[in-house]
Amino acid sequence: MMKRSLFRGRIDRKHVLLIFYILESLIGAAIGYGIYCIEATLGMWCLISIVLVLAPDQKDTMMLATNRIKANLVGAAIGLCSFFLHPTNFAMICFGLVASILVCEWMKIQHATRTAAVAVLIVSLHEPGKYFWQVAADRAGGVVLGCVIGILITYSFHRVVQWIDSSRAGPLISDRTA
């Protein structure tokens, strides 16, 4: 059988999903950057969280996004809680990373452990001379906002893919992957 190109006849599902992931990422970046322009600290961490929540594969996309959000929130909470134990230093960073791995294992979201670890670092690292609690709270807020935006974008595109699969537009997309 002859392999069809992206622009002739039917479009491979793989290419459609790639285009959608690019669009998701650009929309997420635009929203995150808009927030960054208004409030730099919130926007920066929001943008990172948006990118962490989005997934290139539509298979189990809502479950993956939800698990990444759970992991993001686990990491943010551990980063905030570690503040009460001791000021941030190498030992506390290691504690936060180990705690996030163990909590993700307990919650059975092992594939999202890296997301939790990044959230621990986002929340727990701060510039010297600034009030840690305010910095950590701002960053945790950015993580949560980024998660919400990421899941809304993921859900919207997931619904579009479902609509395409069930509509008359479906025959334009081949299930065969190149």
| Sheet with the most strands: spatial strand order | 1-2
- Largest sheet, described in full? 2 strands, parallel
**Beta strand count:** 2
| C-alpha-based Rg, rounded | 19 Å
Number of helical segments with 4 or more residues: 6
Could you name the ranges where pLDDT drops below 50 across 5 or more consecutive residues? none
Helix content: over 70%
Instruction: Indicate the proportion of strand residues.
Output: under 5%
Mean pLDDT: 80
Structural class: mainly alpha
N- and C-termini, Cα separation:
12 Å
The figure for the number of domains is 1
- Morphology: globular
Reading the helices and strands in chain order gives EHHHHHHE
Structure write-up:
This protein is mainly alpha-helical. It has one domain (11-167). Helix content is 72%, strand content 2%. It contains six helices and two strands; from the N terminus they run E-H-H-H-H-H-H-E. The protein has helices at residues 13-38, 40-53, 61-85, 90-106, 113-124, 132-166, and strands at 11-12, 173-174. A two-stranded parallel sheet has the order 1-2. Helix 1 packs antiparallel against helix 2 (40-53), helix 4 (90-106) packs antiparallel against helix 5 and helix 5 (113-124) runs antiparallel to helix 6 (132-166). The longest helix has 35 residues, at 132-166. The chain starts with 10 loop residues before the first strand and ends with a strand.
Show the helix and strand layout.
Elements: E1 11-12, H1 13-38, H2 40-53, H3 61-85, H4 90-106, H5 113-124, H6 132-166, E2 173-174
Parallel strand pairs: 1-2
Helix pairs in contact: 1-2, 1-6, 2-6, 3-4, 3-5, 3-6, 4-5, 5-6
